[in-house]
Each structure stands twice: as structure tokens, then as C-alpha cells.
Amino acid sequence: MRRNRLFVLALWILSLVGISISGGPVTYGFFYAVTLIPIISLINIAAVVSQYRIHQTLEGKYFTSNEPIPFNFTLQNETFFTFPSLRLKFYTTFSTVNDFDDTKEFEILPDTGIKKRTTLVCKYRGVYEVGYKQLEVRDCFHLFCIKIKNPETLKVNIRPKLFDLDSLKTLSISKLSKASSYNFSEYPDVLTREYQEGDSPKLINWKQSARQQKLMVRSMIGDIQQSVSIILGSQRDSMDNKVFLPLENKLLEIALALTNHCLKKSTPVNIFYKQDELHSYFVQDSISFQSFYDELSIMQFSTGYQNDDTIYLLSENPALFNSKLVIFILPKWTVADQVLMEKLQKYNIGTKAYIVCDSQSDYTQIPQSQIDLTLLTSGAKLEEEL
Predict the structure, then answer these.
(1) Rounded Cα distance, 331 and 244, in Å
(2) Among residues 215, 259, 268, 285, which one has the fewest Cβ atoms lying within 10 Å of its Cβ?
(3) Is the pLDDT of residue 179 over 60?
(4) pLDDT at residue 332 in the model
């Protein structure tokens, strides 16, 4: 394009020199013709910009990350003149339009157009723009280019992908969740009820009994005693969506995959995460799992949801200390996490931690004997690494 402009400028200077030296109808005609070229180019671009029509749609109601979404795209020329050179640009940071080359230039004849039925793949969970981003319009002489941003962008709400894993390389639910049902003598404020005739003396909570001035026993409700607890971090440390979208997507994928795996092992799961307040979600069957999936799909991450605050709220939580296994799924590991894990281990509760980060060097100094830690990057393939 720059070469074309230099070429036209050279012709215009040459024509100007010609009329200065000799004049005449041929020389003046050449001068006027060259002078009109950029004017015609601008008129051509203005006409295309005012007449082009673009339409794009996605088929479906719910969209999942890394799953193909039917995508329909139409670029139409309804005029009597040709669109000489158009180039389409798509959002590519978080999504990909399959079978469409956005480096290719199109010439569209009158009453014709481009109709494309293909698929679009969104990489991460979240709300962001996809599809057609910008149209580049060039004139017939390739002297100028105008870039027009899409005034009506296509925004989608993508849900995290659910991985159905038959087995886990990094965790054995049955092996790590064999804490004794009666090893609760020092538990802080576990779920209790009033003593009834026939209850085992081993279940008496002397601390609560002293407070209530009557015998209190630890609740042995099966679902509570046999559940696995998951602590899911909701802290956001970066405001750059190129950083936080991949990381948060992976945290949610891990939580969903582990919950689904536990249910396949007939083990209910209690999930804890921070929003405006501490949330907990008890998943015990396919119906509650679907509700949990919907809830997790709209879960918010924030710089205000500090992980230490979540750990503090959980440090005396009865449901957590009635778990047989506690799994940490976090964007980073802190001293507060370490203290809670050691407290859980003191009561013979199995523990496991998954940290999603792209700077794994920060965790090389953690003694593996103190923490069962698995580091995963935001681009990790769970079916291979989990």
C-alpha cells in the first residue's frame, strides 16, 4: 500500500513537471487523471463503508470452554458496485474461528457475499467478546485502508469444561480418606447433638458438654462423616484478563473434575469458597452436581476475596473437621493454608493441595514431606496430569 502511494505521488510530481515545462491537453489530462486517483479511492472506500452488511450468530444456549460452537457469519454486498478489497479480523486471544483465514483479502461482487457456517471454540470460562472484531476496507487502487471496529460485538458466557476422569494419578480417594470415625476427641466445635440413651461414650464431646451443662455427642450423620471437602480459592491477583482467565478456568476445571470423580466413587463432596461471604455447596448426586456446575459457572473471582480470610472462616468450621479428606485448590499457597493443613493432619484427616500457577519456581522450596502438593499450569491437560 505504501508502495502504491509513492508510485501515485511520483506520477503526480511527474505530471506537474510536465505541465510546467510544456503544457498541452495531453499533459493536463494526465495531471488531472493522476490527481483524481486518490479522490476516487476515498469515494470508493466511503461507498463501501456505508453499504456493507455483516451478520454473525452462535447456535445454542449454553457454551462450554474448548467445545465447538456452531458459528454463522455473513458479509453481504447489496449494491451495484464491487467491494474491491475487504479483510476480516476476529477475536483470537480467547477464542478461535475454525476454517476461516483472517489474513485473506476478499473481493465481493454486486449482489453477492460471503456466507460461512463453521465453528468457534472458546478457550476459557468467563464472559468475553468473540467472533468478528474489525473490518479493514481498502480502495480499488490500494492507496488507503480504513479499519472499522464492530459496533455490536458478540459477547458470550462460557462455562468451564467438565472432565470425566475414571482415575486420578495425583490422588486416591479411597487411600487418603480412611480417617477413623472416632478420632475426634480434640475437634474444635464439631457438629453435636444432645446425648441419647445408647450413644457410644466415645462420641461425647466434653468441651461442648461443659459449655451446654449437659451431655453432648458428636453427630455421626453418614453423609457428613463420609464427605470429602474442597476448599476452592476465589482470590484474583491480576486485573489482566490474559492472566486471570486461564488461571481461574483451570481452578474451576479441577474442582469440577474432582467433585465428579468423588461422586463416581459414591463419595459426597462439600465445597467451600469465598464470595461476599463464605459459601458452601454439598454435592451428593447428579441433581445437586448439576446445580453446583451452574453455580460454579457464574462464580466470581475478586482481589477482595483474600484466601487468608477464607482459611480463617474455615479454621473452626464443624463440617470441614467432619470430613475424611480435605482438598485445597488454590492460585497460591500461603502460611495460613499451611497452618490449616497441619491442623487437619493433627486430627488424622487426609489432605491434598493443587496449586495452579505459571511460576512454579515459587514452590520448589516447600518440603514435600510436609505437604502433598501438585503444581499445575493454567495450560495443563487435566486428563494427562490430574
Answers:
(1) 10
(2) 285
(3) no
(4) 87
DSSP string of 81-149, one letter each residue: S-EEEEEEEE--SSEEETT--TT--EEE-TTEEEEEEEEEEE-SSEEEEESEEEEEEE-TTS--EEEEE
The one-letter amino acid code at 76 reads Q
Residues 6+ apart with CB under 8 A from 217: 192, 193, 194, 195, 196, 199, 200, 203, 204, 205
- Phi, psi angles (nearest 5°) of residue 31: -60, -45
How many CA atoms lie less than 13 Å away from 135 in the CB half-sphere? 22
Buried b (16+ CB within 10 A) or exposed e, 368-381: eeebbbbbbebebe
Helix 2-21 vs helix 25-51: crossing angle, to nearest 10: 150
Q: Please tell me the distance from the alpha carbon of residue 355 to that of residue 307, in angstroms, as a whole number.
A: 13
CA–CA distance, 154 with 203 (Å, rounded to integer)? 58
Q: Look up residue 49 and give its three cell numbers.
A: 463503508
pLDDT tens figures, 222-233: 434 468 999 999
Nearest alpha-carbon partner for 236 in 248, 253, 251, 246: 248
52: nearest Cα among 73, 90, 79? 79
Note whether 150 and 133 are within 8 A (CB). yes
Of the candidates 140, 45, 46, the one whose C-alpha atom is nearest the C-alpha of residue 84 is 140
Residue position matching grid coordinates 480417594: 173
Distance CA 109, CA 81 (A): 7
CA angle, 74 then 79 then 85, to 5°: 65
- The Cβ of residue 263 has, within 10 Å, a number of other Cβ atoms equal to 18
Cell numbers representing residue 161 in the block = 469444561
Distance CA 97, CA 71 (A): 8
**Is the pLDDT confidence value at 247 over 90?**
yes
Cα gap 297→291, rounded to integer Å: 10
What Rg do the C-alpha atoms of the chain give, in angstroms? 32
What residues contact 221, with CB distance under 8 A and at least 6 apart? 191
Q: So what's the pLDDT on residue 70?
A: 95
pTM value is: 0.78
Nearest to 65 by CA among 116, 132, 118, 120: 120
Distance separating alpha carbons of residues 274 and 317, to the nearest angstrom:
14
- Give the list of residues 6+ apart from residue 295 with CB closer than 8 angstroms, or none: 281
